[in-house]
């Protein structure tokens, strides 16, 4: 698209009215139109920024972030998204708070939200907990808003939970759309979401789960490949199967990396921990069984080490479509002889795809900003039109 | 009030000219007019925000925060207040600074203030220290301003010291004013500030002290109740007595919770540590006597445990005015069987008052913003008028 | 200068076009005109702030800071500078990031820069590392910009490296310029950059190195004095010699503090660690040799203690020009009987110069803002003119 009007026209063709005043938890809770609205708004915001049109739609207001796991890129993406719209990030650092006093989620959620327009949460460590926690927070502020305590209902954006990583996969997908020239060109394309070896353990399942939960909606031939024992959440497998059926694509699980890579248009080789082991770990933490956790870690690392051959090699890449499938990763990757001896990908493969990988990552701030935008403005088309008319530059221009 | 002009008219009737370029340490250092100006400006700012009128009065400038104790709600309230006015919060994290190098308060205060319009400090841990430290900081920046080092004198806002917690009690009071339909309706109302049992120890005295120092000014019948041995600072008792006399109300101390609750219109049951013990603790810390501190902690917990019957029960609530006194708390509360086995309040009482409690907390950001506003603008009435004329929306509107 | 036009006229006489879209690493990599442009823009920004003219030139955008050493004044100076221009500071806290996962500098640099207009880094601890790291970051984002990954190239500002501390020395110099009434008055003035005793060890060399690398450019008579064994980087000595030659001043090294102070117009007595020892320490850290580090620390403290007589005393001050040389320090200073028993300066000397010292520090935010400004705007003169015409106040005015 070449003008802002093109994005507005696209939005006019979509039904996304349910996104207004709503949250973003899982991609499969959204309609196709709603997902396309996110990508369209993300592209429009990028277009405006690239053309030095300010997209500051808030004069004041906070964007609250809560990271229950370390983060660089998601933290900066959230901060960038908030800043782009005029919201100031305030991080809820649980270590510096009084939450240890036994405060309820309901109370904390309201106490931080008096002037909050959005809350972004990353809570991906424990199976059955992260997504549930986000819902608790959302329920609390929704009630607080209804009860007249909060003047606005902050939108909740899932910055990675135990089930899905929607800001990542929506950015991945926007990258794919741009690489393939449009959603309409994805039908029939083969995508391989495959496990890969890493010397670390306990990497979240939210990326592979999020990928099969989203990419199966475009009519693609999606293969999830992993060694036996590295199964993902069964519920998400069901989502993927049902998506594939509806979209006219296919979904299958394989225990053979070569099978998945064969003729693939897109490959996404990445390590994760077995779902069953992560469930066990959650229970061990729940019981404070530190010896059990150490034993589990040792066991998992040993199990991983049996599968060092699950690596994205040049040899495997040659077997993909024309030998040049689009290689994806959420970063940081474990690169052979760079970040570790044996890892997820050979250095020469990674190097060749460095620019596309960084480009892939660059969509995340815009995807987050779009999720906030669609929750906050009922008619983004009109807002875009007015912003264009207003011609307020992001960076002062003479 | 229904229009911004109503708030402006109210301000026109008050004398608060001494607040301009001044700090906010203790409520009893301010006149009645000055306190009413704070509440009026707070309400006006809330009115404007609710009507989507931007109150951004700074294009740039910093709000410095220094928290020497953990904090969630005060931290977010201060951040919200600054953001509402256009100031960016910059936290002085003493752990990340060079202050350990032996730098003086005077120097640090100036070094962080070159572009600071406000400094908010929480320093409530040690008797005789917190308020004194805030004065040191204020003196330093006042001198820096006079000496031409600083282009502006940052306003100091006491976010809780060893003596008072003015942003809390001013928010509490604004809540009371709204619940009772105006300051003029408070005369003769009975308020019970009572101790309550908590399994933790060492809770600051600033809330009960701040409450009796402020609430005695409205002609109310104020009772401070606590077990023997839980006395507060004698100086603040004197303030309360003198306030009550001047305002035509009353103030007395009781060692009987039931006596305090009887026919009360407002109850504020909350744990605190004995003043004498806190003084002792300050000395022990001063001498680095860690064994002494542990012994004191054990002693205080045992002493607390003798008073588990000091709990805000349904039974006690029934004895209040019509059985429905307004229940207040600064939060988080120790709730029976929720945050601990025995605590300050029964769960059913707390639950019934949850919404009013959250509403009470929601005034704090506005009270802080009002304190900053009155220190920074000589004529807030004119500023409000111009902001209304300008009609710049907080959130973009079409 | 009295009007903004005066600063604009000054800028019109200078050639600084290479600063646009460029970084600021070392002062000696910049031309005289470029340095003067920094001072002029810094003064112009201060003039505008003092006259309540908003200098907000960004509606959105991030200023990324990375502090690999504790910092108060540089942290707040950077935050103030960004805020003054409209950028929001986002701190990269390596402890909270995923960088430990083995991510490359190139990757991290790009991941945090999607909406970053400036990156400020302090990395002064290890010889041969800090400046090199900054170049790695700059190279990475320059490449990212060229490859279309970043929409803008963030300017890199050196907030202190192992070689230079340009934001400090440029602020020092701006202070000198104002004190002496113009650059043109500095020719022939004697400046003594001297070592002084401190009971701590391992203070960075970047200040003395930065001072002799910059102050030798003004035709001044610069003496670097220190006890034997406290040599600075030989490369910077060469820079200083060459500068002095070109500028018609002089540069020499002395091992006698009295010799340096004699008739000096400006004195800068400050502790630092021997370059050779710092090189050794870097190697010890590289090898993880903690015993070696402890031994080195002990050795260095003992070595320092041999030179307690290197103190800026009243007696020494009397020997300076008319007994009243301008005393400089980057702060915090080790003051006798205040921050330590024996230190860098007698309390009465420090006290007498407190105001000028704080004034000296007050230039740093403006110097940083000027560095950013010159990197971001090709024609600052036009921007100033338009800002003045726009007359948007920093603080709301009626």
TrEMBL record, chains A, B, C:
GO MF: amino acid binding; ornithine carbamoyltransferase activity
Database matches in Pfam families: OTCace (PF00185), OTCace_N (PF02729)
Superkingdom: Bacteria
Domain annotation Aspartate/ornithine carbamoyltransferase carbamoyl-P binding: ranges: 25-176
Span of domain Aspartate/ornithine carbamoyltransferase Asp/Orn-binding: 211-372
Record-level GO BP terms: citrulline biosynthetic process; L-arginine biosynthetic process via ornithine
Keywords (A to Z) from UniProt: Transferase
Family: Belongs to the aspartate/ornithine carbamoyltransferase superfamily.
Record protein name field: Knotted carbamoyltransferase YgeW
Primary gene name: ygeW
């Amino acid at each position: 698209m070449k003008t802002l009007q093109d994005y507005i026209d696209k939005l006019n063709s979509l039904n996304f009215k349910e996104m207004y005043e709503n949250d973003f938890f899982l991609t499969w809770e959204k309609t196709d139109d709603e997902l396309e609205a996110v990508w369209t708004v993300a592209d429009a915001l990028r277009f405006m920024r690239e053309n030095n049109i300010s997209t500051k739609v808030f004069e004041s207001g906070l964007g609250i972030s809560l990271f229950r796991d370390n983060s660089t890129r998601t933290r900066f993406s959230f901060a960038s998204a908030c800043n782009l719209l005029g919201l100031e990030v305030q991080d809820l650092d649980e270590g510096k708070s009084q939450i240890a006093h036994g405060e309820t989620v309901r109370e904390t959620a309201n106490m931080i939200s008096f002037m909050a327009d959005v809350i972004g949460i990353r809570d991906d460590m424990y199976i059955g907990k992260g997504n549930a926690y986000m819902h608790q927070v959302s329920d609390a502020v929704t009630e607080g808003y209804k009860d007249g305590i909060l003047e606005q209902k902050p939108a909740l954006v899932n910055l990675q939970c135990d089930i899905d990583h929607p800001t990542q996969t929506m950015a991945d997908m926007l990258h794919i759309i741009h690489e393939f020239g449009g959603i309409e060109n994805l039908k029939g394309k083969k995508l391989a979401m495959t496990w890969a070896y890493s010397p670390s353990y306990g990497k979240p399942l939210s990326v592979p789960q999020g990928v099969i939960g989203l990419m199966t909606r475009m009519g693609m031939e999606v293969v999830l490949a992993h060694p036996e024992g590295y199964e993902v959440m069964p519920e998400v497998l069901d989502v993927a199967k049902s998506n594939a059926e509806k979209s006219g694509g296919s979904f299958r699980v394989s225990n053979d990396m070569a099978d998945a890579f064969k003729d693939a248009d897109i490959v996404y080789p990445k390590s994760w921990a077995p779902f069953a082991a992560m469930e066990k770990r959650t229970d061990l933490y729940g019981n404070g069984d530190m010896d059990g956790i150490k034993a589990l870690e040792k066991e998992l690392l040993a199990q991983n080490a049996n599968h060092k051959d699950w690596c994205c090699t040049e040899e495997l890449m040659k077997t993909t479509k024309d030998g040049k499938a689009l290689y994806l990763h959420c970063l940081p990757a474990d690169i052979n002889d760079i970040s570790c001896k044996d890892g997820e990908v050979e250095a020469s493969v990674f190097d060749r795809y460095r620019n596309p990988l960084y480009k892939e990552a660059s969509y995340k701030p815009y995807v987050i900003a779009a999720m906030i935008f669609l929750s906050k403005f009922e008619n983004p088309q009109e807002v875009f039109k007015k912003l264009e008319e207003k011609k307020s530059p992001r960076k002062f221009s003479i």
